[in-house]
Design brief:
Elements lengths: L10 E6 L6 E2 L4 E13 L11 E15 L5 H11 L3 E7 L6 E14 L7 E14 L1
Antiparallel strand pairs: 1-2, 1-5, 3-4, 4-7, 5-6, 6-7
Length: 135
Amino acid sequence: MPNVILGMDAKLYYGNAGSSATNEMTNVRDVTVSAEAGEADVTTRANSGWRATVATLRECTIEFEMVWDPADAGFAAVKTAYLNSELIAFKALDQEAGTGVDGDFSITSFTQSQPLEEAITVSVTAKLAVFRAWT
């Protein structure tokens, strides 16, 4: 059997900005962590006709969906951070005590979906504002 980590074993934690997140968010599904870097063209004539690129500034985005549940503490924390334009701490790990990003994030999208035959959900986009660590 190959050594794989299933998405259902991943962990997303939240907390107060300025400290590492410690409260597990259990009302989430389909979490996506995107880490990207900008690019700088450093091509010179000495590169034998090949374009040369180096990575510059990095950015990180966490996107996830939650069931619309105002009584859920994690939902309330994310909604409050969005409505008040406040930072919120997130730590997204591939498993308990695993690896992933830890930092303070700004909620840039909080989109409600109201399908006819499904639960109301909210799609959240959080962008890194303060990098703490990549464990």
